Q: What sequence folds into this?
């Protein structure tokens, strides 16, 4: 019980229970009734909130890294669990983007009508992704479901430091769990240059709580559980939730556009610090420093220079990175806006025309890899055609067209592989290959028993390798079995280094 006591004590629920036991026989009946009244309120809130909260189960693919159960570089299946909650009666729900990242299948488990008892079997639905907001780690999902209880995002609720709150979700896969705590801080910024702010709470959060709601004792939504600060990977009373106003803004954009984007100013901003102010001889103590200006972006066209300090953007004063972040979201691409800066001892007014956010070239992720499109069976690898978009993410490449090694499908015949994820295969026995199909055809043309020599590019260097490729006969035999299919490993939370932020997936 000692370990249980230590992990349970820091939360506000532990404080309440200790207070109740400390009162003893001499405690007034009024104090007991006060505790019973608090307990009654939390029961009432749980009964109202529980049907709005769901468990999310994902299936995805990833490339194993050192320390995983599978060998590094091998494509493995992965299962994950998180939480979410309905925000409309017709099945739209909010969760964290990291909960559904790279998911090939998303299942939503909804509490059965009439309450959440262990005998109730949840209803299961398949969800589709309606939109992703990576900046704020939010995702909008949709399930086809009859009318469901939901959180009304138009209802305002503001957290207060010291306020008692409840956290709901599926920690360690235990669905419909609730924990009680206090609001530790209202607008917690995790680093000066991170413009996002969070509600900090000591209510217990663990892996699986991600995407669940943080509510007050009236059952009003305050935020969405997103991350923990932990030395052990578990709850240490430092949980963080994205606030309601961010959820509301993100939901509107995701519902209308499927994405949440900020117009581009073409600058690299940085928070002001006492050292920067003193070292650069700045004349202001509030604002955002312009570290760099893209020479071809809107900032350069407006006349911004490195070393300028932003004071306002449009009608919004800019004192911190958070102010700049909010002001950027309010801008419209192509619509000029006034910009006030301090340059040396002079204040200047400039006019900047924000640009639309650039579409990031779609690069293959583990979740989009299939055997049909990507498996090169004879080499035991998954590959992708080296498109210009994919090449742009890899820096300068010397060898021209080729096939990128995305992952390994196994360790090969000799227990090891001579190719690695990130390699680019340029030729097979001197024949250039520029697509996955061309690589497969070139390998098929090599007779059984004949050597296979690949020219690969790794870290900017070209070399010839001789892989332990299987023969055509072995390939046909293996295709009828599961011998080279990806292994299955259950997702786990690795121990995190001291003071490292971990996403509580």
A:
């Amino acid at each position: 019980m000692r370990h249980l006591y230590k992990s349970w004590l820091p939360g506000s629920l532990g404080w309440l229970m200790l207070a109740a036991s400390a009162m003893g026989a001499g405690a007034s009946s009024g104090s007991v009734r006060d505790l019973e009244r608090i307990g009654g309120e939390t029961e009432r809130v749980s009964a109202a909130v529980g049907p709005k909260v769901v468990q999310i189960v994902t299936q995805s693919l990833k490339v194993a890294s050192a320390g995983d159960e599978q060998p590094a570089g091998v494509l493995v299946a992965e299962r994950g669990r998180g939480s979410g909650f309905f925000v409309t009666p017709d099945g739209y729900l909010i969760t964290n983007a990291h909960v559904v990242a790279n998911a090939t299948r998303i299942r939503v488990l909804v509490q059965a009508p009439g309450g959440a008892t262990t005998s109730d079997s949840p209803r299961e639905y398949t969800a589709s992704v309606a939109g992703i907001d990576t900046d704020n780690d939010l995702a909008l999902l949709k399930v086809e479901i009859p009318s469901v209880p939901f959180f009304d995002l138009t209802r305002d609720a503001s957290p207060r430091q010291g306020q008692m709150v409840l956290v709901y979700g599926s920690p360690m896969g235990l669905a419909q769990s609730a924990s009680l705590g206090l609001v530790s801080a209202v607008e917690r910024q995790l680093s000066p240059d991170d413009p996002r702010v969070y509600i900090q709470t000591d209510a217990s959060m663990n892996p699986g709580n991600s995407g669940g709601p943080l509510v007050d004792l009236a059952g009003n939504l305050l935020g969405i559980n997103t991350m923990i600060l932990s030395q052990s990977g578990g709850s240490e009373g430092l949980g963080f939730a994205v606030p309601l106003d961010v959820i509301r803004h993100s939901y509107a954009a995701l519902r209308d556009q499927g994405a949440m984007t900020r117009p581009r100013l073409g600058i690299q901003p940085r928070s002001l610090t006492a050292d920067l102010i003193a070292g650069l001889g700045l004349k202001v103590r509030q604002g955002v420093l312009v570290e760099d200006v893209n020479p071809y972006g809107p900032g350069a066209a407006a006349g911004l220079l490195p070393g300028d300090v932003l004071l306002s953007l449009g009608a919004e004063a800019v004192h911190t990175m958070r102010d700049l972040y909010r002001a950027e979201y309010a801008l419209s691409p192509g619509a000029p806006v006034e910009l006030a800066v301090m340059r040396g001892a002079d204040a200047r007014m400039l006019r900047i025309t924000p640009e639309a956010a650039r579409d990031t070239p779609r690069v293959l992720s583990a979740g989009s890899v299939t055997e049909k499109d990507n498996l090169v069976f004879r080499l035991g690898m998954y590959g992708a055609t080296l498109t210009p978009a994919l090449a742009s993410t890899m820096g300068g490449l010397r060898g021209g067209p080729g096939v990128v090694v995305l992952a390994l499908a196994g360790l090969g015949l000799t227990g090891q592989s001579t190719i690695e994820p990130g390699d680019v295969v340029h030729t097979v026995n001197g024949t250039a290959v520029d697509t996955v199909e061309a690589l497969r055809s070139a390998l098929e043309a090599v007779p059984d028993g004949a050597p296979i020599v690949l020219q690969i590019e790794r870290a900017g260097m070209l070399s010839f390798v001789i892989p332990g490729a299987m023969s055509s006969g072995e390939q046909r035999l293996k295709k009828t079995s599961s011998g080279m299919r990806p292994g299955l490993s259950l997702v786990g939370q690795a121990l995190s280094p001291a003071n490292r932020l971990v996403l509580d997936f």
In short: Residues 1-10, 411-416, 474-505 have pLDDT under 50 and may be disordered.
